[in-house]
Amino acid sequence: MDVARSTQAARRAPSLAKRISPPPGDTPSGDSPSGDIPAPTREQILAFIAESTEAVGKREIAKAFNLKGAAKIGLKQILKEIEADGAIARGRGGLSRPGRLPPVVLADIRSRDRDGEFLAVPAEWDAAQGEAPRIIVAAPRGGRSPGRPAPGIGDRVLLRVEAEPGAPGRYGGRVIKVIGKNKAEVIGVFRAGAQGGRIVPVEKRAQGREILIPPGQEGKAEDGDLVSASIEHETRFGLPKGRVRERLGSLGSERAVSLIALHLHHIPHVFAEATLAEADAVEPARLAGREDWRDAPLLTIDPPDAKDHDDAVMAQPDPDPANPGGFVVTVAIADVAAYVRPGSALDREALLRGNSVYFPDRVVPMLPERISNDLCSLREGEDRPALAVRLIIGPDGIKKRHSIHRVMMRSRAKLAYAQAQAAIDGHPDAVTAPLLEPVLRPLWAAYEALKTARDARGPLALDLPERKVLLTPDGAVDRVSVPERLDAHRLIEEFMIQANVAAAEVLEAARQALIYRVHDEPALEKMRALGEVLASVGIKIPKEGALRPALFNRILGMVAETEHASFINEVVLRSQAQAVYAAENLGHFGLNLRRYAHFTSPIRRYADLIVHRALITACRLGPDGISPDVSVAELNQIGEQISAAERRAMAAERETIDRLIAHHLADRVGASFQGQIAGVTRAGLFIKLAETGADGFVPVSTIGADYYRHDEARHALVGERSGETYRLGDRVEVKLVEAAAVAGALRFELLSEGRAGAAGAPKGARSGPRAFKQGPRGRPAGIRTSGTRHRGARK
């Protein structure tokens, strides 16, 4: 790459050198009698460096001015003098003027701006030159090149940069190469000391590796603050030294624990003033141009603590004599597209966020509250614009046809899941009693028909209860509960799935580009790994032809009433591919559907907003749809961005729950818990607690007094002398030894004995190196946790 760049510089440099070279007969004094061209003047060199669009060094200057022989020696001397005077600076990107960046820069991507472009800063910058310049890194259009990783926040990249005219300190950049993650930046909690302080990293993998902050490098940080720091100096012995770059906030209470995840994952959580101003200026949508559905018995069914309501449902018997026993099912979704127009400040920030993020102590919404909790929330008794799908369902649950409508609706009631379920079960309250026969009974009857078709379709039937962390008013963890799974939940989910399928079918029929929700089938490697895990508990993968969800459902059925049920459900989940957003349709393996798009949650998912706009355009429902000439490449780029935002949100939510539970359990060090072995490695065992679902680690150095080998084939640790075996999926009792709340990490000791077995490792087993165990008093070097947990989704 360097050779090619030098060649390009040599090709471009003569014309630049020609413009700044002195005219014939006006050359500097000291011309060489041998005919060598003299070295350029100081001013010519500075002008060449300033105007060059390529990396500049001594070789590039010599080629540009055709210098040879003694003239090169003169150039070297001039460069030394200019550098000594501080007129030029030398860096990895070549020579540059002080305070300015060279054409090629090694930089760290820190965040995104309000337009969704990446913002980077130079990896090396002398603070004496002032504030580091900002580089706007344009995301590659049309998707990334095959085999080349796309840049992301936290990446270190090689950039080609150009100064933006009229904007001092601002540059535009184009990615030449993604180097990798910037390991020099650390997010941690600052602990003040008599001389400077220390930073305790918040990431699990960095636990036990504190950073020393010398006096004067603390910035504005105070004890207990969450900070961003850079490692400035590392040695083989002793703590690395660093400096505080930025104070991110105070961690004075448990309610601020989610602040760690927000900054660690670079999640935007403060709306720009322009976005808020635009939201405040929005006028409520009018009936004009919409169908009037305000008398329809639509109602919302949500969790009791829901603040925004983006879907309403209703069902009625189909009066068409050609469909006896059938139903007309209606799903109305908040019309966010009426308020969030393409290219607006609201739209840019919604794309930047990608989705809402839900923590036990706060919600980081995709849209400002004026939009999400007011104008677009389908409040009871208030007129609200909606985009609705009307489904004609046969008595067997098979959809016969569907239609899309842009309407004005008025929700008849706001119900909680348990409230609606209680009414159906014969315990209506004052709100649900008048709704029971005319509204709720038809809903459940339509669901029974749809359920018949769903069972025949055979989607993946994982049973993974979602644990919910409940907080006290002051932000402390009260308890961890597993909400009961009701038919009311399943009803709403099935209605939403049917609406999503209908949206995708309408857009495909209209040949309108869209963003699909795609879920590919499991990879071969994951299937092999699943087979090994199942074999370790005595189950063989049933032989099937094509890979289908029914195969996994048969496996889950085999363990449904055994002690391995919850564990195997987790393992089957891990074997699945990750669902993503894309403009090309790959189908949805888990739901066993040929086409699927997210349409039902535009308040909290940007993908749904894109689908809404596409439907408005395809069905000619107004001028605020998607651009008719939008390309598949553009939609793929959006799909990549919002898929990354979804993964970011899931990781942040999971880690926040880990930290809250670790904080909650810190007062119970020494207590015993029931759990299950969720992972086996050479280093030890990962344990999932039955009570809270928390993950922790048992270091191998604390397991008995024996040589233990890692039997990869059996997913077990096996004692060499005793044959005692700890196997994946085994139920065990553990004692909590340590809880690192900041990292969300737990360390346990085993109280249960392993399975009895013959001494010695199994014949032919792939075993790791043996290690002598110190017994229960041995202490590991650090804490590790598995970090794998599924967070269920409502729709």
Provide structural commentary:
28% of the residues lie in helices and 25% in strands. The strands form 10 sheets. A 5-stranded mixed beta barrel has the order 3-4-5-7-6. Strands 10-9-8-11-12 form a 5-stranded antiparallel sheet, covered by helices on one side. The protein contains 16 helices and 34 strands. 40% of the residues are buried. Helix 11 (487-509) crosses helix 15 (606-618) and helix 12 (524-536) runs antiparallel to helix 14 (565-575). The protein has 795 residues and is an alpha+beta fold. The protein folds into 6 domains: 42-96, Orthogonal Bundle (Arc Repressor Mutant, subunit A); 104-179, OB fold (Dihydrolipoamide Acetyltransferase, E2P); 185-250, Nucleic acid-binding proteins (OB fold (Dihydrolipoamide Acetyltransferase, E2P)); 273-446 and 468-496, no CATH class; 511-653, no CATH class; 669-756, Nucleic acid-binding proteins (OB fold (Dihydrolipoamide Acetyltransferase, E2P)). A hairpin with a 4-residue loop joins strand 32 (731-740) and strand 33.
The oligomeric status of these chains comes to single chain
The percent range for helix content is 25-40%
Distance between the termini: 48 Å
Q: What proportion of the residues form beta strands (DSSP E)?
A: 15-25%
Largest sheet: 5 strands, mixed, barrel
Q: Count structural domains.
A: 6
Overall morphology: globular
Radius of gyration: 31 Å
Average pLDDT number: 83
What is the overall number of helices? 16
Secondary-structure content class = alpha+beta
Pfam family, one: CSD2
Biased composition (Low complexity): 27-40, 757-771
Enzyme class: hydrolase
Region (Disordered): 1-42, 302-321, 757-795
